[in-house]
Amino acid sequence: MEIYLDCNATTPVLPQARQAALAAMADDFGNPSSVHSTGLRARSLIDDVRARARRVLGVPGGRLLFTSGATEGIQTAVLSALVGLRDRRARGESVASLLLYGATDHKAVPESLRHWKALLELGMDVQAIPVGHDGRHDLAWLRERAPRAGLVCTMAANNETGVVSDLDGLAGVLAGSPALWLVDGVQALGKLALRLAERRIDYAPFSGHKLYAPKGIGLLYVREGAPFTPLMAGGGQEGAQRSGTENMTGVAALGAVLAALEDGGTFGDAATLAGFRDRLAQALLEAFPTLVFNAPPALCLPTTLNFSVPGLPSKLLLDLFDAADVRVSGGSACSASKAQPSYVLQAMGLPAWQTASAVRLSFGPAADEAFITAACERIRACGRSLRESCLQPSAPGSLPPEGLTRFIVDGACCYLLADAASRRCIVVDPLRELTERLAALLRCQGYTLAAVLDTHRHGDHASPAAELRAALPDLGDDTGPLDALGWPQDVRELRLGDRVLTRLPIPGHTADSTAYLLHDANGLRLAFVGDTVMPGALGRSDFDESEPLVFGASLLKLAQVVGPTTLLLPSHDDGDRFASTLATERRAQPLLARLLGGGLDAPAFAAAKAEREGGVEPGDCATPAGGARVAPHVDDDCKVLTPAQLLALVERQPELLLVDVREAYEQRLGHAPDLVAPRARHQAIPLSQLLLALPDWLALPTTTPVVFYCRSGNRSAQAANALRRLGHEQAWSLAGGLALWRPQGGDAPAPLRDPDVPAFA
Ligand code: PLP
Predict the structure, then answer these.
(1) N or C: which end of the chain has fewer CB within 10 A?
(2) What whole-number distance in Å separates Cα of residue 689 and Cα of residue 401?
(3) DSSP structure class, residue 93
């Protein structure tokens, strides 16, 4: 069962609202402007719902319009206020110069202010009212500017944090000001009494879909006497205040929600909801003991919790919750590789780690006891899964990392090579951002740190190797003195179970650049090559530490030792290509191809490379790969399969391999997906552990399809692209991931079940 905890984004539709909407389509489908009986019935419905809305909002006077939602309500209010100010100015009255909005307001507010100000050519200044650490408006700042403000926009309650504004304080500050006042009431409806008339609020937009009505219906209240200009002109509906045939299904559904609010039986009261929130908060603290709340719960809506967990980015938590079928949302929108911090939390002055790792959990006032109990249990299960993966330091884990794990921070790569049997590990190219997490992971698993190695002295950051060793004092190795890159002096090879690491100096990018070669029972398995060869680029050689004249010789030596097909693991991978080979890079990089083909001597290679690097500032990290020029990659478009196509492909090619690339903590929580097909083979290889599996997939017959899947299709697309770039053409990603996997419905055929195929772990 899905536990939906994202009600500040949107809510499901209340059953009685669904019924009302269906009735409005089936029976009362008339146009309220028609004068025949069918039309009159529709008119009566709309009048009843408006009257109900007036009672619920406590606004017997003023305008109350049906809109398509809050964004439209905000446009109408802003347009009305600005036209009013322009008219006052045209009449020669003195007009204030400021348009103010809360720094944590929904984007619809500042964007509307800027949009309409520009269209109306009003030379007014748009400014954000700062908020304090608690998310509430800085009233002293506002008091100073209120006399010069033409319009002040604030929200009743914030959608990300749930922080409730001090509306009485704001009303007091604005008491003597000429400013019009807009209060965005979206998140307050059904949860807080706004006392719109009493507080002399001029405009208040609301949205149906935030309170169990469907999308596409909203309300706008306008105080009697406040300026008003219709946003839409036409047939004169809504008393010519908002033309366009009314959305009668939306109105009917909203009417059912308002009736539920009036009846008092459907929605919990404030005390009940606060009790639910406290239980969820407790479950969260048990699941993630180091969690911090990003806004003081006492100042927030009783239905919203916003929190961050140190060391756990919001993307990781969202994947974890989603795997447990718990829907929450990130306080921040995450792009493919970098998290966009939440502007709301930034405005509150929270530290960067908190703004970049925030998660919002919000339920609706129709939540009941059983739902909250199930939600708490599911949250605790998420915590257990993380602890078992040792991502939370509080308990010993049962799943030791084995093999090779890749960590990536803003394109920089760090590798953990671990041997579960001996509990020894080696870290290659450590990153400061990961020190704490790695130390916790290794401590939790009782691992001994056999070595922390750098492939070179990094130009863009100092190595945190010493910090990592110091963070694990009881696990430190006793191999004696280390060289500058962390290799134990007088040691030829580092052994880790049946794997062996040797080194190969490859000066060029820097004088000390070194490759670490990993061998196993089958011979050379892969090489950590630092910045010397990256996917699509060669490391720069115009740094002070570089030795450009020997770069070419180093590449030739590398080619001789590793050959064309050994996997090369870089220390930068901005394009999510994971690994490369010299054969792949020869195809992508003409300069490298000429060198390896014998067409360039060392000075000619150095000159050609210097020419290519000219004009790129050293350390210019706006360009990826530590400032190197990256060759454009022509076939980055991922090949995707819809569920129906996947099932058809399995029928045609039963040797097909299905790979779940979700992380272990998700796989453990996730329901075994219905991706079961006769004879199709399955593997669970988390994206972070992809590297050691790549050579095996590359060794498959070229016609064998390898189909990756994950939660949403992003990570599986990365895996498929990486494999395809390395030469396996039949690499695919399941479009939309498990989120869109509906083999029972839609156009996808029913799944083909095979009782002999074991369930996923
Ligand atoms: N204001 C707030 C506080 C909101 O949370 C939202 C929705 O996210 C909006 C305005 C926009 O509402 P609608 O989706 O109805 O346009």
Answers:
(1) N
(2) 9
(3) -
CA of 338 to the centre of ligand 1 (A): 25
Residue 538 Ramachandran class (φ > 0 left, ψ -120 to 50 alpha, else beta): beta
SS3 label, residue 127: strand
C-alpha 126 – ligand 1 centre gap (Å): 20
pLDDT in tens, 619-673: 444 344 556 666 655 455 679 999 889 888 988 998 999 999 998 888 888 665 5
Ligand 1 atom, smallest distance to 105 CA: 3
What pLDDT is stored for residue 620 in this prediction?
Answer: 44
User: 68 near 205, Cβ under 8 Å?
Assistant: no
For ligand 1, atom 7, the nearest C-alpha belongs to 9
Tell me the residue length of the chain. 761
Note whether 114 and 105 are within 8 A (CB): no
- Which residues are identified as catalytic? 334
Minimum-distance ligand 1 atom for the alpha carbon of 69 = 15
Task: Give percent of the chain above pLDDT 70.
Answer: 89
Q: What are the C-alpha distances in Å from 361 to residues 105, 159, 340, 727?
A: 19, 11, 18, 43
CB 218 within 8 A of CB 206: yes
CA distance 333 to 320: 16
User: Exposed/middle/buried for 297, CB within 10 Å: 0-12, 13-18, 19+?
Assistant: middle
Please give the single-letter amino acid code of residue 59. Answer: V
Which residue owns the Cα nearest ligand 1 atom 13?
Answer: 70
Query: Rounded CA gap, 235 and 363, in Å?
Result: 39
- Lookup: tokens for 248: 């009668």
Tens digits of per-residue pLDDT, 573-589?
988 999 999 999 999 99
- Atom number in ligand 1 closest to CA 187: 3
Helix (H) or strand (E) holding 173: helix 167-174
pLDDT tens per residue across span 438-485: 888 888 888 889 999 999 997 777 899 999 998 887 665 566 899 999
Nearest CA to ligand 1 atom 16: 71
d(CA 512, CA 169): 64
Taking the CA atoms of the chain, what radius of gyration do you get in angstroms? 31
370 burial level (CB within 10 Å; 0-12, 13-18, 19+): exposed
Rounded distance from Cα 124 to ligand 1 centre (Å): 25
Q: Which of 560, 563, 558 is nearest to 533 (CA)?
A: 558
98 SS3 class: strand
Distance CA 69, CA 72 (A): 6
Rounded distance from Cα 207 to ligand 1 centre (Å): 7
Ligand 1: which residue has its CA nearest to atom 10? 70
Q: Which residues contact 581 (CB under 8 A, 6 or more apart)?
A: 564, 565, 566, 567, 568, 726, 727
Tell me which H or E stretch contains 143.
helix 139-145
Q: Flag whether pLDDT at 295 surpasses 90.
A: yes
Distance CA 77, CA 101 (A): 13
Phi, psi of 248 (to 5 degrees): -70, -30
AA letter at 273: L
Per-residue b or e along 513-526, where b marks 16 or more CB atoms closer than 10 Å to that residue's CB: bbbbbbeeeeebbb
Question: What is the band of 340 on the pLDDT scale with cuts at 50, 70, 90?
Answer: confident
Spell out which residues line ligand 1, taking CB within 6 angstroms. 69-71, 106, 108, 155, 159, 184, 186-187, 207, 218
Distance (Å, rounded) from C-alpha 116 to C-alpha 99?
A: 11
Strand partners, 523: 520
Q: Is the pLDDT of residue 262 over 70?
A: yes
Pair 701, 653: CB distance under 8 Å = no
Q: Distance from the CA of 194 to the center of ligand 1, in angstroms? A: 17
What's the token pair of residue 197?
Answer: 């008339």
DSSP state of 724: H
**For the segment 3-55, what is each residue's pLDDT rounded down to a tens digit?**
999 999 999 999 999 999 999 999 989 999 999 999 999 999 999 999 999 99
Q: Residue of the nearest CA to atom 9 in ligand 1?
A: 70
